[in-house]
Structures are given as C-alpha cells and as structure tokens.
TrEMBL record:
The keyword Transferase belongs to this UniProt entry's keyword annotation: yes
Lineage, uppermost ranks: Eukaryota, Metazoa, Ecdysozoa, Nematoda, Chromadorea
Pfam families: Thiolase_C_1, Thiolase_N
Record-annotated Thiolase C-terminal domain positions: 236-351
Annotated organism of origin: Caenorhabditis briggsae
Protein name stated in the entry: propanoyl-CoA C-acyltransferase
Gene: daf-22
Main location: other
Length: 372
C-alpha cells in the first residue's frame, strides 16, 4: 500500500470583484495584491508566513507571478507561474497541494489572475448535444444569472428572464450573449496549509477546509480520433479523473450538496453533468427538467453565478471556485448560502487540454460548530 498522504487545508481565501475589462483603473499586480491581502486577512497570517507560491494566468509574459506578488512582499520564496489555459488557477492549487504533501512547505499561497482585452466571442464554436433542447441551455444560463444576484463579487448581478436569455443577441448559431461567459478582469487567492501547521496554529481549525481530493488530467486519444465537439471539450478526460476522484476520496456525487462547475458556455455545463457522473450519459437535460441544479433540488450548481455571470478572468477562475466552495462550507455566503452544506465539488477545464476536479469539506467540523 502507498503511504497515506498528509492532509491539506484551505485556511484563507480572498478575491476581487470580477469586472468588465477596462472598467476599473488597475493592472494585474493591483488585483493580485487585493486578493492576496484579503486571503491573508481572512486567516490572520502575514505574507512572511508564506513559504512557496503558485500564480496562474494565461495572458502575460514570463514571471508575471513574481511581478504581482512583489507588490505584497519581497521575501525570496519560490514562485511558480502556471499556464494551463482556463484551468491555470486550479492547476496552481493542485501544484500547491503537491508541494505540501511532499513535505517541502507547510504554507503555500495559490493565486490566479487575468487582465483581459475586451472582444467578441463570435468565432468560438459551441459543443452542441442534440439530445437536449434549446430551452435546456437557456435555463442553465437563466439559473446562473439568478444565482449571481446575491454575489457582490460577481461581474453581473442583474436577474434576467428566461425570455431575455433566449432572445439575447446571438453569438454562435442559436447561442446568445447571456449563455456565454464574458471577458473579465480579476484575481483570487487561497492559502493552503499542512496538518502539521494547524497543530501549531489550532485557532485556524475552525475555518480550515480540507481538500479531500484534487485530480488533474489531460486529453485522451478520443479528442482527436472521434471528430466530436463533446470529446473536444475534454469529456473523456473529465469522466476519467472524476472516477479517480470518487475512488480516492470514497465520496460520490450523492454525498455532494454544492458544485462549482466550469460553465464557459451553457452547453458545457449540461454536458459536464454527464461527464462527472451526476446522471447517465445522454440524460444531462433531465437534471435541468427536475431543477436538480439549483436551490431546492439535489445539488446547487454554480451558486456564485458561475463563469457565465460571476465572470471568467481565466487564470483566476479555478481559484475563485475554491474561494466560493470554502465560503459555502464555512456558511459565509448570506442569501446564496446552500443549506446543510457538508461536501463541495469543483470542476475546472482548459481546452487543449487540462482538467481539474476536486472534493472539499470542513476539516474540523466540531471546531467549526464550537465557534458558532
């Protein structure tokens, strides 16, 4: 048997408000500084306590992570720049977890950012599944916009009717503007620690969120062999690592209450229901029909508003998902709080490709209860 891995916990999270490119007069170091300082304040640590760091981003030159974190401090720590398309942020979190598991650090900062240029998505293809109807995709976008109304960090906080979603300006084929993630500026940060660190700092146990499992995978031959849009967006990769995650954590979708899922376009969310095993193949639309993706249903999927409404600053997205799930587990989400939230799941994907899925829960639920 392989030795048991040390446990890894998120103790501090922070993020900027996601916003339309150019709407705020800031550069990426300003965003990262705000997110990191927020995460440090959340757990009462100082930047000098950070032993290593990862920074995910897509658009930028070499060593942008150093340039950003130098605004917070110049402590000489190892800083890893991570570029894994839209999964850059969660890939950095995966790397940070491995650093702690290896014993090379007890406190790692995982951050992600993006400063994007405004532009059109009209040339992007849509991975359509003809087993679902037009209205299923519109209902997903309607749901995510509705969820974001109570998220102050969301790029959009306006409620849209289903008719407004369906009749919005078309971007590709049938798909409208409100069913697509926007270009966004923003940053997010999470501070992860070892169990050894928590034993020395027991005050943090009440807010420590355990990363029960985190799996990263890349494309399989079927992406190139089958000429399928569904395969192209990493369906098989996600299906494979999801099964590995469930086996490793001994958790299943039935144990989960809340999911942050990579809804870059509404069809991607529906297709991913099947890839992560929420339903049998070809039955993703039934989750929409039963309202099992929102409050009152089996799962609350994208309570933050998801990429479609919260925004999608590419390098920040995966970390922002961890921020939302940590806050949900800690019961800090106000009007968008998922009731009885015990287990949370993450799905983040970058075309080309990289996929990350993860499971989270409170590390010390008794300590968390005693603090209430």
């Amino acid at each position: 048997m392989s030795p048991t891995k040390p446990k890894v916990y998120i103790v501090g999270v922070g993020m900027t408000k996601f916003c339309k490119p150019g709407s705020v007069d800031w550069d990426y170091p300003d965003m990262v500084k705000e997110a990191v300082n927020s995460a440090l304040d959340d757990c009462g640590l100082k930047y000098a306590d950070i032993q290593q760091a990862t920074v995910g981003y897509l658009f930028g030159g070499t060593c942008c992570g150093q340039r950003a974190l130098y605004e917070v401090g110049l402590t000489g720590i190892p800083i890893f720049n991570v570029n894994n398309a839209c999964a850059s942020g969660s890939s950095g979190l995966f790397l940070g977890k491995q650093i702690i598991e290896s014993g090379n650090a007890d406190v790692v900062l995982c951050s992600g950012f993006e400063k994007m240029a405004a532009g059109s998505l009209e040339k992007l293809a849509s991975p359509i599944d003809d087993r679902s109807k037009r209205e299923h995709y519109a209902k997903i976008a309607y749901k995510n916009h509705l969820h974001s109304v109570h998220n102050p960090k969301s790029q959009f906080t306006k409620e849209f009717s289903l008719d407004q979603v369906i009749n919005a300006r078309k971007i590709y084929d049938f798909m409208g503007l409100l069913e697509c993630s926007p270009t966004s500026d923003g940053a997010a940060a999470a501070i992860i620690v070892s169990d050894r660190f928590l034993e020395k700092n027991p005050r943090l146990k009440s807010q420590a969120v355990e990363i029960v499992g985190l799996k990263l995978g890349t494309d399989l031959p079927s992406v190139f062999a089958e000429k399928s849009n569904i395969k192209m967006i990493g369906f098989d990769m996600i299906e494979k690592i999801s099964k590995e995650l469930y086996a490793e954590t001994k958790l299943t979708p039935n144990d989960v209450q809340v999911i942050e899922l990579h809804d870059c376009f509404a069809p991607n969310e529906l297709i991913t229901y099947e890839a992560i095993g929420l339903c049998p193949l070809g039955k993703g639309h039934t989750i929409v029909d039963r309202n099992d993706n929102t409050y009152g249903g089996k799962w609350v999927i994208n309570p933050s508003g998801g990429l479609i409404s919260k925004g999608h600053p590419i390098g920040a997205t995966g970390v922002a998902q961890a921020v939302e799930l940590s806050n949900q587990l800690r019961g800090r989400c106000g009007k968008r709080q998922v009731p009885n939230c015990k287990v949370a799941m993450q799905h983040n994907i970058g075309i080309g490709g990289a996929g990350v899925v993860g499971m989270y829960r409170m590390g010390f639920p008794q300590s968390a209860q005693s603090k209430l």
